[in-house]
Amino acid sequence: MTRIVCLANSWKHGERCIAGIDTFKKQWIRPISDLEKGKISKAMRQINGIEPALLEVLDIPLAVTPSEEDWERENRVLLAGKWKRLGQVSVDFLKPFCENEGYILHNDQRYVTMEYLQSLPLEERQTLQLVEAVDFRVRSTGKRFEGVEKWSGTVITVGGQEMTGMITDPVLNRRLSLGDSPPSRCLVTFSLSWPWVPGGWKEDGNPCWKLIAGVIPCSA
Known about the structure:
By secondary structure, the protein is mainly β. The protein has 2 domains: 2-90; 93-217, CATH 2.40.50. Helix content is 10%, strand content 41%. The chain has 4 helices and 12 strands. The chain has helices spanning 42-45, 91-94, 114-119, 170-177, and strands at residues 2-12, 15-22, 27-32, 56-60, 75-77, 84-88, 111-113, 128-143, 149-157, 162-167, 186-192, 207-217. The longest helix has 8 residues, at 170-177. It is globular and about 45 Å long. The protein starts with a strand and ends with a strand.
């Protein structure tokens, strides 16, 4: 079993992407299945019918090492077995794991190309990052295909970095759609999407977009 603190339970192609940090090894972990693009189904992830929540400590049956052929260094293949919920950590416990200096995921753009990631050694292909935000602003960008409102967020970190990304945290999306205000100070998990080329794309390469996959208010 691999033990992580859950820092993302986000939308992924009709299912979810689960990710978190192994706090003992100080490593990001993203369970992947044999489904399309590694997404994690409800039957796989729910524990006694309940979704994994941010800040929860989870035991998940996973392969020990990443595949050398995988472009996301954090990926671990999901093995047979039941997930376990062991408790919860505090926001203060997680702050030492924030990376607030330098770029958010490789550069100051909203995407990183797959070609660039593949040019890096496996240990440098970072696709997940936790930051502490001192300002967080949101705006509605229309409707998802399920009819759920879509939101974009802009984060400014304690280190002065600014980044905008689509919000794929379903809990936060629901709260924003109900009229709640976003937390101004929070911990934010950024994750890279699978490559997606929008219409009219004129740049080189296949862009992987920076997503806001999990948001934890600092008052939590």
